[in-house]
Amino acid sequence: MWYYEKKLQYPVKVRQCNPRLAKYLIEQYGGADGELSAALRYLNQRYTIPGKVIGLLNDIGTEEFAHLEMIATMIYKLTKDATPEQLEEAGIAPHYVNHEKSLFYHNSAGNPWTAAYIQSKGDPIADIYEDIAAEEKARATYQWIINLSDDPDLNDSLRFLREREIVHSQRFREAAQLLIEERDKKIIF
Amino acid sequence: MSNTYTKYYYPYISPFDPCKPIIRKSYPTPPQMYLGFQPPNLPQFEIKEALYRGTLWPALYSKYDKKDYRGEYDE
Amino acid sequence: MSSPKQMPPEYYQQLEEIQMVDFAIVELNLYLDTHPDDYEAIKQFNSLTYESRKLKKNFEKQFGPLMHFGRSYSQYPWQWDDQPWPWQV
Ligand SMILES: [Fe+2]
């Protein structure tokens, strides 16, 4: 089971009321390479992966939910007190007519989240390489959002999230190494 | 051992390209491409600093600055 | 009805200290998932875990429970559902 802790993993600050940035950030909320996809992908794969990498999938999957909450916080703060006119100017009137200011799992172009974004092949090598690729794609998405954003406080949090993808990728690369090693790590003579 | 974390390439430029060409394009190749299986006892950031770096280990830290409009990364 | 009162600077400052320690714990945890035999890293993990517990105990005395489902104590009246939530502060 999981426990909720009443804190963000990293302090999220937003300097300006700028709903346009919310439109881009939602990519990492309900997009193909976003945090929801990441969390669900890893937590689902963990049931059928060899024991030596279950813990890693479990823990990175859990951390991804903390990242999902950071993205949600950014979107919430960027839109909280914006007027419908401001939302319209920012290009998110189509979101507003369906969801008002509530969050929803769709990408920056408005496509709803789908399980087709993620995969679980049951082949440990295929799954771990999918995970490495997912981390690099998430890293790239953060780069492109940072390039579009001029909010220095928001960019600070986005740089944190980009760096986390790098560390996750590193750990999955190590997991790939563990999976091809001859010996089970528990048997040491 | 010194790896560079940005790579460059020069796309073909046609005289009929409508936008002002970006002569040199770049892309990041961050540290996880090179570290291999992380060795034990690597130097660490201070606990306070680690949070703001997004990692405990300088060996995994990758700076990212906004690209300028020409599509270049800072080295 | 007025909105709930704002949190004092100490709330942010102590929360940040917890975030710092807990972040190092997450980093070491993921590292240990692929390096289960690193004795020094386990020692550091355990000592930071101890540090985190201390910080949280102190924080919760002033600002209420950080966790639900029996991981934190509550004063009267029930404090868990008190605002602000993390995305509101
Ligand atoms: Fe990740």
| SSE-based structural type of chain A | mainly alpha
CATH fold category name of chain A: Ferritin
Give the low-pLDDT segments of chain C: none
CATH class of chain A: Mainly Alpha
Pfam family, one (chain C): CotJB
Protein name (chain C): Spore coat protein CotJB
Domain Protein CotJB (chain C): 13-88
Keywords (chain C): Capsid protein, Virion
Describe the model:
The complex is a heterotrimer of chains A (189), B (75) and C (89). Chain A has 189 residues and is mainly α. Chain A has one domain (19-184): Ferritin, CATH 1.20.1260. Chain A contains 8 helices and no strands. In chain A, helix 1 runs antiparallel to helix 4, helix 3 (35-45) runs antiparallel to helix 7 (124-148) and helix 7 packs antiparallel against helix 8. The model of chain A has no long low-confidence stretch (mean pLDDT 96). Chain B has a two-stranded antiparallel sheet with strand order 1-2. With 89 residues, chain C is mainly alpha-helical. Chain C has a domain at 9-62. The longest helix of chain C is centred in the first third of the chain and has 26 residues, at 9-34. The A-C interface holds A 3-12, 53, 55-56, 59-60, 63, 69, 72-73, 76-77, 167-168, 171, 174-175, 178, 185 and C 12, 15-16, 18-19, 22-23, 26-27, 29-31, 33-37, 65-69, 71, 85-87. The structure holds fe (ii) ion (FE2).
Could you give a short description of this structure?
Chain A has 189 residues and is mainly alpha-helical. Chain A has helices at 19-25, 27-30, 35-45, 51-79, 84-89, 93-99, 124-148, 152-180.
